[in-house]
Amino acid sequence: MTVLPSVLPSVGVVIPTCGDRPALLRGAVAGVLAQEYPGRLAVVVVADGAPGRRDPLPALGVPVLANSRTPGLPGARNTGIAALDTDLVAFCDDDDLWLPGKLAAQARALAAAGGEFASCAIEVEHGRRRVTRLAGTDTVTVADLVRSRMVMVHSSTFLFRRGALWADESAPGGQNEDWDLALRAARRRPITHVDRPLVRVRWGGASHYAAHWADRIAGLDWMLARHPELAADRRGAARVYGQLAFAHAALGRRRAAVRWALRTFGARPGEPRAPIALAVAAGLVPAATVLGLLHGRGRGI
Q1: DSSP state of 203
Q2: Residues 6+ apart with CB under 8 A from 111
Q3: Is this model's pTM higher than 0.90 or not?
Q4: pLDDT tens digits for 103-117?
Q5: Of 29, 78, 20, 93, the residue nearest 53 (C-alpha)
Q6: N or C terminus of the chain: which is more exposed, having fewer CB within 10 Å?
Q7: Can you tell me the distance from the alpha carbon of 168 to that of 178, in angstroms, rounded to the nearest whole number?
Q8: Residue 45 φ/ψ region, left for φ over 0, alpha for ψ in the -120 to 50 degree band, beta for the rest
Q9: In Å, how far are 9, 26, 64, 76, 225 from 89, measured between CA atoms?
């Protein structure tokens, strides 16, 4: 029988922001500070943005740092990690909300498993709808993350040993840096997953870090080059190829969309992203309409 400590490891929380949505940022900070956590809790907000542009931040009651590293989300995360002295570090995006019990549940699960990286299930909020996304497991492996992006292994659920991992600042436009981080963590040791929706992830609002289609393409190309196992797994390859087909279709690049759709069919004939991308490329349906329908179901492309 595992005996858990009454006082859990100290935790530092990094909240990156560009300051362009102060109400959501206040909510993110409040959700973290409201955690009933039997251990030391430190919170730091890292303000990121183009030089000379910095919207005023509201009074938050926590330290606010400027991103001192590469501009963008990975640099902001790493600025926060470097500023902390805690045993564990956690991320919370400025438009997401930690729900009661999140931190204690994950820290106890980590202690029980002897792990070093944890995630949890999420509740996706899009408009007036909320959809719970569960993993159906208490352990996430590299194979799991290759076959599926596993949206519930979301950056706002990450809790891990400080110093063990850093966000990769070479990620184009900051794209897929969280997926890359989760894959690298799972290679070290399976991820401890608490399969309860303990983070509310908000989709659909304007975001400083929202991806342009060209950034998404560059980010997927970066992942394929960085993680060859993605192309080796037929199901995982078909998913990424289908996303590339859709992104090119959204940009009006029909030939590229068709080329990637054919690669998708070759990897896995039943992959639904290929016909969806072809429909967008043919002008039968706008990309935004497809995304709106998927987001309403708590899913992405």
Answers
A1: E
A2: 2, 4, 5, 8, 9
A3: yes
A4: 999 999 999 999 999
A5: 20
A6: N
A7: 9
A8: beta
A9: 10, 20, 16, 14, 28
